[in-house]
């Protein structure tokens, strides 16, 4: 029997991240950066005004009238040199003229007139004391040339796209999205659009698992449902091979059930290991390869499949996708009631409530591994470490936030 960590490490050691590709910046939200991004120049690149007002010499400020010798809109490159007793009208974002070192906001002057198109006054008066650098965004205050701005392995966020654009990077080197084939299995499964009949259930795992796979940034190739016979399993797996996927994920059909053909088929053209993992739910886990494509067989029970995905498949897809592993944060909260375990590393479905400023967790409904309601209502998975059989109410515990 493997510990959860051993099983995970054994799986992860078999994977390398996908190749990289260069794509236009507009397509980069949610993609995984494949290189460190370095600033080629300082930002801002030039000292500029953070206010609409008058660029002045701070030494000149306090109860004065200055001659306005220039007008500097944003986007221009001022040639004027501000001398003692002089000022220039300046707009937010406009480059500071030489000689000036502070900006007096227009509303602090006698020219509090901000209508578009107004020409600059001949003189400007104000009483405020200004210090060196007031209302000036100095060159390099955001970042310096040579700074590493975004690290490889980062999942790009909208703000990062803004950052990349600011740096003038219009094409970005990212990892290719992992391609994952997904298969359900079992003669009892019927399509979600078909009415239920005695003995049948809807295939729910494929919807849940496809969405989970996509939540990691990977793409899903839905193989459908393999029936409990050799030909059906072979047919679906051949689709995965044809699609040249990076990973095949299946649910169900790998236990000791007499109708579980998946293992026979895979072993005929690859190998499949059946692991007992010291966890609950999700103790049986199948890992191997079919025609050189890695294969992970999750349990069929929906809750077990979910937990197995979070514990084994999510980190695998993060690694495949070139991400820094561990995007689901683990946080510490308090047990709201007593939790029991059989001593295996347990993943219980819990809801988080805020009580007197502290996050407290309670179980969601019946915790059996076939009960989708418990997982649907859960905010988090509570982890009870191996060897612990009872967590008393009030104890600090670790959860994975979903
Ligand atoms: P098995 O591993 O085939 O013995 O399946 C274990 C349990 O999971 C059985 O109760 C199955 O009916 C159920 N199950 C298997 N596949 C799915 C699926 N795709 N959606 C919902 N339940 C499933
Ligand atoms: Mg089955």
Radius of gyration using CA atoms only: 31 Å
Q: Helix/strand-derived class?
A: alpha/beta
Shape: elongated
Number of strands: 27
On the 0 to 100 scale, the average pLDDT is 95
H/I helix tally:
7
Ligand roster: adenosine monophosphate, magnesium ion
What summary fits the major beta sheet?
6 strands, mixed
* First-last Cα distance: 27 Å
SSE blueprint:
Blueprint (H helix, E strand, L loop, with lengths): L3 H9 L7 E5 L12 E2 L9 E2 L3 E4 L7 E9 L13 E5 L11 E4 L17 E4 L9 E2 L10 E3 L7 H9 L4 E5 L3 E7 L3 E2 L10 E2 L2 H11 L3 E8 L3 H13 L4 E5 L10 H7 L1 E7 L2 E2 L3 E7 L2 E6 L3 H19 L9 E6 L3 E2 L4 E11 L2 E6 L8 H5 L3 E5 L5 E2 L4 E6 L1
Parallel strand pairs: 5-6, 12-15, 12-16, 13-14, 16-20, 18-23, 21-24
Antiparallel strand pairs: 1-11, 2-10, 3-9, 4-6, 4-7, 5-8, 17-19, 19-20, 21-27, 22-26, 23-24, 23-25, 25-27
The site of magnesium ion has 5 residues, from loops.
What does this structure look like?
There is one protein chain. This protein is α/β, with parallel strands linked by helices and 402 residues long. The chain is built from 7 helices and 27 strands. It has a 6-stranded mixed sheet with strand order 15-12-16-20-19-17, sandwiched between helices. A 5-stranded mixed sheet has the order 7-4-6-5-8, with no helix packed on it. Helix 1 packs across helix 6 and helix 3 runs parallel beside helix 6. It is elongated, with a radius of gyration of 31 Å. The protein starts with a helix and ends with a strand. Bound molecules: adenosine monophosphate (AMP) and magnesium ion. The site of adenosine monophosphate (AMP) has 18 residues, from helix 3. The site of adenosine monophosphate has 18 residues, from helix 3.
């Amino acid at each position: 029997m493997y510990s959860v960590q051993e099983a995970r490490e054994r799986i992860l050691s078999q994977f390398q991240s996908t190749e990289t590709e260069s794509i236009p910046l507009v397509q980069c939200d949610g993609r995984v950066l494949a290189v460190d991004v370095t600033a080629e120049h300082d930002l801002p690149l030039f000292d500029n005004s953070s206010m609409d007002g008058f660029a002045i010499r701070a030494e000149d400020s306090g109860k004065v009238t200055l001659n306005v010798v220039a007008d500097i809109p944003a986007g221009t490159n001022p040639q004027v040199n501000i001398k003692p007793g002089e000022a220039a009208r300046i707009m937010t974002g406009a480059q500071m003229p030489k000689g000036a070192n502070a900006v007096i906001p227009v509303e602090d002057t006698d020219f509090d007139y901000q209508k578009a198109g107004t020409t600059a006054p001949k003189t400007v008066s104000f009483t405020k004391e200004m210090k060196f650098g007031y209302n000036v965004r100095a060159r390099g205050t955001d970042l310096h040339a040579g700074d590493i701005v975004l690290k490889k392995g980062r999942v790009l966020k909208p703000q990062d796209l803004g950052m990349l654009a600011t740096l003038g990077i219009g094409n970005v080197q990212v990892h290719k999205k992992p391609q994952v084939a997904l298969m359900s299995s079992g003669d009892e499964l019927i399509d979600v659009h078909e009415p239920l009949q005695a003995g049948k259930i809807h295939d729910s795992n494929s919807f849940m698992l496809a969405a989970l796979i996509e939540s990691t940034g990977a793409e899903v190739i839905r193989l459908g449902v393999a029936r409990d016979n050799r030909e059906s399993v072979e047919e679906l797996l051949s689709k995965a091979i044809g699609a040249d996927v990076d990973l095949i994920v299946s649910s169900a059909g790998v236990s000791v059930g007499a109708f579980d053909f998946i293992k026979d088929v895979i072993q005929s053209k690859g190998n499949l290991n059946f692991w007992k993992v010291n966890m609950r739910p999700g103790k049986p886990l199948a890992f191997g390869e079919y025609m050189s494509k890695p294969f992970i067989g999750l349990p069929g029970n929906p809750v077990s499949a979910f937990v197995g995905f979070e514990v084994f498949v999510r980190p695998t897809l993060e690694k495949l996708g070139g991400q820094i592993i561990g995007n689901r944060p683990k946080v510490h909260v308090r047990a709201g009631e007593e939790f029991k375990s059989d001593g295996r590393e347990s993943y219980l479905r819990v809801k988080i409530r805020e009580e007197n400023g502290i996050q407290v967790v309670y179980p969601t409904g019946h915790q059996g591994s076939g009960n989708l309601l418990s997982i649907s209502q859960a905010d988090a998975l509570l982890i009870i470490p191996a060897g612990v059989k009872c967590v008393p109410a009030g104890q600090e515990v670790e959860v994975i936030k979903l």
